[in-house]
Amino acid sequence: MTASGGMAGLISKNVFAYCMLGFGSHLMTHVWDFYYVKLFVNVYNVSPVWFNASQVVFMIWNAINDPLFAYYQDRSNHSWIRKRQKAILYSAPLWCISFLIPWFPWKSILDQPWVIGLHLMFALCMWDTLLTFVLLNQCALFTEISHRYGDRVTLMRCQVFFNFITSWTVFATESISDHMKNFVNLQMVCVVLALLAWLSLTYCALNVKSSCDSAIDIELTNKQPKESMVTLFCQLIRNRNFMLFIFMNFLQICHSTYNKNFLAIFGDQLIPKDSISSSVRSLVYGSPYILTNFVLLAVTIPVKHFGAYRVIVFFFLYKLTQSTLMYLIGPSHFYFLAFYFVIDMVITNVTFSQFNLILSDVVDADQRQHNRSTPISSTVFGVNALFTKPAQSVAPILVLSVLNRYQYTSHIQSGGSTLSGPEIAQLKEGMFSVACLWPALLAIIQLVLWVPYSLRNTHKFERDNAEPVEVNLYMKMEQ
Question: Which of 166, 250, 292, 310 would disulfide-bridge 388, Cβ 3.0–4.6 Å?
Fold first, then answer.
């Protein structure tokens, strides 16, 4: 058997199972990210105080659980935590149940502001707990299925097909629920999505294989001494490339969260209902999830040849240019504005999709530097999340606080009757400024942070080394 034949065999066996993990997770995360803020603010009418309190609690718990789960996934002596497959299998049904929590209102039991606030707080914390546990394993598997840059790009490319299928979930949910007007239909769609997600995650857990499985089994059998969580944490925060990535990623998550949570809100306010049809509006809100996969598929070619670092720099420059041009064009050109919303979200998603490659390089470099028998994949992703996940709460708080300077929340909760014509015009002007200046500011800071990153040529290693050592490992696994 040739080396390339062995590698192809491994990829063909593993890629489908791994992609089913992404398929199941995206079925739920697309809908959650798109709807949860709009659901609690516009439908359940959560008060600003309870919204901010929920986000703060969520931010704290979000930061704590990632490094805790990550450390035990990398260093626990219990196989149901240490083995990626078992961890996904046991946590998948609980995660799918947590996805259903927001769609069934508690205020029907007791219509009080604190009930709605506790509902939001509980939903956020339960969702993030299970999401973290599953997706840390997903990120670790991306790194551990293969140590070769080219194989990781191939895996990312194959994932695009499954992402394309799930990218229709928001568009379909918007159409079936008539933009949340038919709430029963929305609930039914979410139940179906949760069931499909559970089946997909279970399939992955039962079939995926990792290059580290044998090494993990040896560690579990021998129960070798492990580094403490503090030791690993200190080693990572002294890694300059890792910290540069973390700061840049924090800003990227701010941008991504803003897009997911406020695209529909800004679109409803800035693009009048009579300017575009309902079907076109659904396309605007749903198409970014679809277009992302076409762009991502095309981008894998320059990523393989020029490296993820350079592609990310290009997208930061594009984001800065596009947002500046949109601000100069102005808010009165509705089709330009709709196009801008779509492309801004697509570019943000595509940029974010490269980050697993970057973190995988960090994991490999850390394993070489500290001579580890198995990589600390989950810990690297978990410490990254410790510093960056709070952005998921910071972004909504910041944006909503800016909008509330123009009395946005009271305007929505009163059914649009509290503001005069000039005040509504000021609100829309504020929204447009946020839509353009927020991405531009983030792009400038990200470029400053990202330029010093030095692990930018890992894509060249395989071209300069004809037979990397990992090939032999995969041939043995194949046999």
Answer: 250
